[in-house]
Amino acid sequence: MAARRRAAAAPAPPAQNIHLSFDGLAELLTGAKKTNAVPSPKKAADYSHMPKLELVEFCEHYGISAALKLKLEAICVDGPHALCWISNEALRTEGKLAISELATLRDAEQRWKNTHW
User: Structural domain boundaries of the chain?
Assistant: First the structure.
């Protein structure tokens, strides 16, 4: 009984403020910010332990077309280990990749990373 009285007499812990941000919620719900852009890969990850793979082998194993392989060779990409350091913008402008080619390439790159991660 004494414990109940002490608990009732003890001050309540101070309320903590909770901050919520709804930035971008309206666009998300309405789909207002739809874009054809392919998201850039995360640059913070360390891919240095990933095994190097020649571009020819990468393209054969992950179903990269001969035309896309030629575009990658033209900008001196030597394998998937180098792709994480090349921005989507550079691949689109300097590499002259179509949006679908970029998506195919990033998909293959991600599957390669998942296989060896």
Answer: 49-117
